[in-house]
Prior knowledge:
The complex is a heterodimer.
Chain A: H1 9-17, H2 21-42, H3 46-63, H4 73-91, H5 97-102, H6 119-125, H7 128-139, H8 144-151, H9 155-172
Chain B: H1 8-16, H2 24-33, H3 35-52, H4 64-100, H5 106-132, H6 141-162, H7 167-194
Amino acid sequence: MDATVMQDAETVITKARLGDPVALEALYRAYSGPVYNLARRICRTTEDAEDVLQETFFEVCRSIRNYRGEGSIWGWIRSVASSKALMRLRRNRYRETDELDAEYVPSAREVSPGLRMDLEAAMDRLTVTARAVVWLHDVEGYTHDEIADQMGRTVSFSKSQLARAHSRLRVWLGDEASA
Amino acid sequence: MTTSHLTMEQLLAVRDGDRSEPAYADAHQHVAECGACRVELDRLHQRTARLRALPRMTPARNQFPAVRTRFATERRQRRLRAAGIGGLAIAASLAMVMIGRDVLRPNRLDAEQQIATAKSESQQLELQLHAWNPQSRVLNSRAAAMVMELEDRIADLDVRLAQTPESERQLALWQQRVGLMNTLVEVHVTRASNVGF
Lengths: 179, 197
């Protein structure tokens, strides 16, 4: 996802690294939208997403001195945000990954066209872990290695979560081929 | 070539060009020859495109004031901890002055005494500020920005003090620190006293 392009980014980042409050606020204004969107897509509630937004920018204020300019500033802020969002999932003790295996998945014949979900509803129906993997991989562009690293799991875990999530989305959205 | 239709794992490997999947080449070949799997792959691409096109969600309220307050509070606490260590340094330097007073040259002794005095003043101002309890008071955005700037400059001075062994240079830095601390206390006290108007 493209983030807002910040005007005079280098100057703002340089000042922010020195703790300049105006520059830190400029970073917030430029990137709070994409950070919140990422957090909201991963977390269950708006309250959790707002907490992640605040935690992310608190960490940005504390750690921007360590940002060496390797990679884009959005890439750096996004890695802080995804880490905070996943930490929030762990803290809330969402342990739904095992439920995915046991979850009942209706076949296409059992899902009547009138009951087909829209994409938002289908994403909400996924477990939080599966939804986080789908969002981080398919939308934010993280690799399975990066997701596995952030989640403290294996690459094959990330791949299987993505595949199972897509299998479910395919049914719920009525995307199954008629052939 | 794979004879049965592709699994979702294989379709994703083809979509993502994931050659680390053992059967990637076979799956890729299969898609080229199987109409049903090509349709599945197209739908997978479409689903991903729809995910990326979902409306962006925006926060209901500005969280930055809360972030700024937390950040300022943390920096203040860090500085107070540093001031605590500074208190030990004062005691140590005073002891050095007492022990070495007979062997140090008068001008060096004078510098050491002045540093000790400046450190003591700085510590008194830190204690005064701590007693004022700025965290329990509200500052407007202009005053908060001034406070942050002063705290930044004090933090910068503390770094320079830790790296400066020469007593003459240390004295100048400590005197600057006293000046900045005075201003910091004044900003807090003035703003707080204005709250009642």
